[in-house]
Amino acid sequence: MASVPREPQRSDYTPAAAKVLGTCLLAFCLLGFGQIGAGVRGYLKTGEGVKTTAQVKFFKVSSSSGTRGGGPSAKAEYEYSWKGQRFHGDRIGFLGYFGGSEARLQRALQSGEPIEIFIDPSDPSYSVVDRTWNWAGFLFYAVLAIACGAGAIHFYRLATAGRRPPDDSRQIRRAEGRRIGKESREKNGQAGAKIRHEGDEGDRNLGDR
Question: What residue ranges do the domains of the chain occupy?
Answer without folding.
Answer: 15-158, 166-208
